[in-house]
Design brief:
The structure holds 2 protein chains of 2 kinds. By secondary structure, chain A is mainly α. Helices cover 67% and strands 0% of the residues of chain A. In chain A, helix 5 crosses helix 11 and helix 11 runs antiparallel to helix 13. By secondary structure, chain B is mainly α. In chain B, helix 8 packs antiparallel against helix 9. Chain B is flat, with a radius of gyration of 24 Å. The chains are: A mainly alpha, B mainly alpha. At the A-B interface, helix 6, helix 7, helix 11, helix 12 and helix 13 of A face helix 1, helix 5, helix 6, helix 11 and helix 12 of B.
Chain lengths: 352, 309
């Protein structure tokens, strides 16, 4: 029968029940993934980010674990034993060399733990000092970013939610702090705070951390939250106006649901990424201040202060400067690359 | 230049002035909050001697009076008072002395970074994903991740101590080569990346395709269309670059013993020469704030597409 173009007669073949084979065709091939799983999958595919992540994990773990079993302490001057004259042969050992006393022990058949990177001018094992310095630098970077994150979220969400005059005033303050030359202010505050804090901290539990690190945290808390709070405020303002939020409201979603399912997932990735990128920034600043002598309190080492101490013997002991330099660059580089990878994998706007 | 532009410029200048005032105020009160004052470090001084010194430097007056005197002197006469540790010299003279060397160092570094950065960025963009591009990207990633002091010291080890090609003393003419290179590497790497990405962005635009379709020659497209527009984002980096060079020169001058303002700054921090610390901080801050302002205004004026707020 010839099919008439305008006939209302339906073709019955189109309406026979589907066979199993055809039904199988419609089954979703891939289980639906969450936003997080999707991002992780993208992250794992990114080789550069994965390698930098492994580097960060290895460095962090060794900074935490190595001091547990290492036989030397970071402030232990090996040549100094109570009641005996100082054994100067421990000082300034080149890598993998031993002092006269240790050499005698080795000759007698005893085992002596090697000084991988030698010792410094006070006879302290240099390897463990680098490990401790890495630990301090990482910790400073991490906690400084957390401080920045907390203050930024607090101020940013207050400005974003309340809006109006409060928002205006907060944002003007943010503008001014943002245009302050941060490094100069950091140097100024750090050089003054350490003098003030030394007296205030004496005898408290914080004394052990050292006034310089505390003042570094204070400086970060005072100055570096502004970009984070700008970011959070911008996120909140733009997310509030999104159509899908309106759609969710229109279909009767409660605000708890909207916050959990729409606002947090869309906001959290940006926040985590900028926190991750803040860590190398803080490590940078700490090493810079340590290099100027405004960093951690002696005898505690940080990578910056190790580099700065090594300047004195630079022509003979150049490796003492190169080692912390390599570690700092490695940490900052891999954190930056990993942060970039995180952004590529988790920023929903970039994936669109 | 429409009224919106002028309004923006006025607003931006006001913000800069406000920022400078905040810097002066913070610096003043922070320095005066230090326990003991500037004469504490002097060895065993009698109380009457300290009193006499305080009277000489006007520190016996109430804090607010001191603050307004200081503010007035700075604003009207650009006078930061006498240096405490370098007897008989005014802070502004010491700074002007150091500025001569530092400005030379900083300006050459900035120009070097700008020229080499733009050229490398353009080359990388035009040779996208080729071997040249990859080498440039790897190198710039490494340079961006290396703190200036580490870069400086590594160059010092390589060229002064091992190879002995250059003098390590920044006071001589040849001694400025390494500090300039050290200071310019980070901004150079940054500008290269910036130029590359904005050039790639511009090369993908419709008007480039139109020009190509019309048969405009390759070089005319690159210099006439692409280069001009892809340099606009670089303008925004002027301010941060000056800030980087100023703070970077503080450590770089320390490493290479350059007699510049950064070196005076560090030694005045160590000596607790308070008027020097305040003066240097304020002058460097003004420099950075003004450069940021200029680059912001330039950016908005040059590109008519930028929305004014």
């Amino acid at each position: 029968m010839k099919h008439k173009p305008f006939s209302m007669q339906v073709n019955l073949d189109d309406f026979i029940p589907a066979t199993d084979e055809e039904k199988a065709y419609m089954v979703q091939m891939r289980p639906s993934t969450t936003f997080f799983k999707d991002g992780v999958k993208r992250l794992v595919k990114n080789k550069v980010a994965l390698v930098s992540f492994i580097v960060i994990v290895v460095i962090t773990l060794s900074a935490i674990l190595i001091p547990i079993f290492w036989p030397y302490g970071y402030e232990q001057m090996l040549g100094v034993t109570p009641g005996k004259p100082v054994d100067a042969s421990y000082n300034n050992l080149p890598p993998m060399h031993y002092s006269t006393a240790e050499q005698a022990k080795i000759d007698a058949g005893e085992k002596v733990f090697p000084h991988l990177f030698g010792t410094d001018s006070s006879g302290r094992d240099y390897f463990i000092r680098v490990v401790y310095g890495t630990r301090i630098s990482l910790a400073v970077g991490f906690f400084a970013s957390i401080i920045v994150l907390i203050i930024g979220i607090l101020v940013g969400s207050i400005a974003g939610y309340i809006g109006g005059k409060v928002d205006l005033i907060i944002m003007r303050i943010v503008d001014i702090i943002y245009s302050l030359p941060d490094m100069l202010m950091v140097i100024l505050l750090a050089s003054v705070l350490r003098l003030t804090l030394n007296q205030a901290l004496a005898g408290t539990a914080l004394e052990k951390i050292g006034s310089n690190i505390i003042s570094l945290f204070i400086v970060f808390g005072l100055l570096y939250w502004v970009s984070m709070s700008r970011l959070i405020r911008g996120q909140i303002l733009s997310l509030r106006e999104q159509e899908y939020v309106l759609a969710a409201q229109a279909t009767g979603a409660k605000s708890g649901w909207i916050i959990r399912k729409h606002l947090i997932p869309n906001c959290i990735s940006v926040v985590i990424i900028s926190t991750a990128l803040q860590i190398p920034n803080a490590i940078f600043t700490e090493s810079y201040l340590s290099f100027l002598g405004l960093g951690v309190n002696a005898p505690m080492p940080s990578l910056g202060s190790l580099a700065s101490d090594a300047l004195n013997g630079i022509s003979t002991y150049a490796y003492r400067l190169v080692i912390p330099a390599i570690v700092i660059s490695l940490i900052v580089l891999s954190l930056n690359l990993f942060g970039d990878g995180l952004r590529d994998a988790f920023d929903p706007k970039l994936n669109a | 230049m429409n009224s919106k532009n002028i309004l923006y410029i006025v607003k931006r200048i006001l913000l800069a002035l406000l920022t400078v005032w905040v810097v002066i105020t913070i610096t003043f009160f922070v320095m005066h909050a230090v326990p003991g004052g500037p004469f504490l470090s002097e060895k065993a001084m009698s109380e009457s001697a300290v009193k006499a010194l305080e009277a000489k430097y006007g520190m016996d007056k109430p804090l607010m009076t001191q603050y307004f005197t200081y503010l007035k002197d700075v604003v009207t006469k650009f006078d930061f008072g006498p240096s405490i540790k370098q007897r008989g010299r005014m802070v502004i003279d010491v700074i002007a002395d150091g500025m001569r060397t530092s400005a030379k160092l900083g300006l050459i570094a900035a120009f070097l970074a700008l020229i080499v950065g733009v050229v490398l960025g353009a080359v990388a963009a035009l040779r996208r994903n080729k071997i040249v591009d990859k080498i440039i990207m790897v190198l710039t990633t490494a340079f961006v991740s290396m703190p200036s002091f580490i870069m400086g010291v590594l160059l010092l080890i390589a060229f002064v101590i091992r190879l002995k090609w250059l003098p390590g003393n920044g006071a001589s003419a040849g001694g400025l080569v390494l500090p300039i290179i050290t200071l310019s590497l980070y901004p150079m790497a940054y500008i290269t990346r910036l130029t590359r990405s904005s050039m790639l962005d511009v090369l993908g635009q419709d008007y480039i395709r139109t020009a190509r379709a019309k048969g405009v020659s390759k070089w005319k497209i690159i210099f006439g269309h692409a280069m001009k527009n892809s340099l606009i984002p670089v303008i925004t980096y002027f301010g941060p670059m000056i800030a980087y060079i100023v703070t970077g020169s503080i450590v770089v001058e320390q490493i290479y013993a350059v007699p510049g303002i950064g070196r005076f700054f560090v030694s005045s921090i160590i000596n607790r020469d308070y008027p020097m610390i305040m003066g240097t901080t304020i002058i460097l801050a003004i420099l950075i704030v003004v450069m940021n302002m200029v680059s912001d205004i330039l950016y908005k004026v040059v590109d008519p597409r930028i929305k004014l707020d």
